[in-house]
Design brief:
Layout lengths: L4 H31 L7 H23 E5 L13 E6 L5 E2 L6 E3 L9 E4 L9 E7 L4 E5 L2 E4 L2 E2 L2 E7 L6 E8 L2 E8 L8 E4 L4 E5 L9 H4 L2 E2 L3 E11 L13 E2 L2
Helix pairs in contact: 1-2
Length: 255
């Protein structure tokens, strides 16, 4: 079961702030009268005073500015590797209230080619990351792993065949409406290598760059606008596992 970190953080802010406020209004003056300036605050009040400002700052930054994530699966290979730590812009697509996800300030909208974090329709409490392929009203077609958007081909340029002899996979550049990004596909397309559909209003069509190893909109449908989290824009660290050393060789912007 996934931990609802925004809700937990909100409660920590409310509880620590509430303890501090109640103590300031009803108990701090009484202690001062009884014991003078040297009277110490109860331990729980000391903790509340210490942690509330930190929790409040983290809550605001994480909810409205930028949020860190770790990549847990290979669905975005080669763009993102398992163990990449990324940063997600929380205001690029508008400001949303934490927990409820209601948009309160409309700043911008997802664009084709963006790498986006969101909640998928079948797992509404789990963060997913994929690439925006289709906008509302777009007709999406895949023919043997070749993408067409509104009938326009997204050209692919081969970079590497794996392995070189009798290749099973290919790494390519894909050009989606002028935005070029890396992608990977099997030489022999999987069951999701062919698809056709129209994106409903208020929804987005998402696909992983690892086309034959990604469960995405081809499997579980379109993503509602209300479930958008933010735009992934940078890798800041790579860490394979706890017994390995963090690496900063992959630090940079996400294309």
């Amino acid at each position: 079961m996934d931990i609802n970190l925004p809700l937990i953080l909100l409660w920590l802010v409310v509880i620590s702030g509430g303890i501090w406020l109640v103590d300031s209004l009803f108990f701090a003056r009484r202690r001062k009268k009884e014991g003078g300036d040297k009277q110490e605050d109860p331990v729980i009040v000391e903790y509340a005073k210490s942690f509330f400002p930190i929790l409040a700052i983290v809550f605001v930054l994480r909810s409205f500015i930028v949020e860190p994530f770790q990549i847990p699966s290979g669905s975005m290979i080669p763009t993102l590797q398992v163990g990449d730590f990324i940063l997600v812009n929380k205001y690029e697509y508008g400001l949303r209230l934490p927990v409820s996800r209601k948009k309160v300030v409309d700043i911008g909208e997802p664009q084709r080619g963006d790498v986006m974090v969101f909640f998928p329709p079948h797992m509404n409490d789990t963060y997913f990351i994929k690439r925006v392929i289709g906008l509302p009203g777009d007709k999406i077609e895949l023919k043997n792993n070749v993408l067409y958007v509104n009938g326009e081909l997204a050209p692919q340029e081969l970079i590497q065949a794996i392995p070189p002899v009798n290749p099973q996979q290919e790494i390519l550049w894909e050009n989606l409406y002028g935005k070029r990004h890396l992608m990977q596909k099997n030489v022999r397309a999987s069951q999701y290598g062919n698809f056709s559909g129209v994106v409903p209003e208020g929804h987005f069509f998402m696909m992983g760059d690892n086309r034959d190893n990604s469960l995405d909109s081809r499997a579980w449908g379109f993503v509602p606008e209300r479930d958008v989290v933010g735009k992934a824009f940078a890798i800041w660290m790579h860490w394979d596992h706890l017994l390995s050393l963090p690496s900063f060789k992959r630090v940079g912007s996400i294309q």
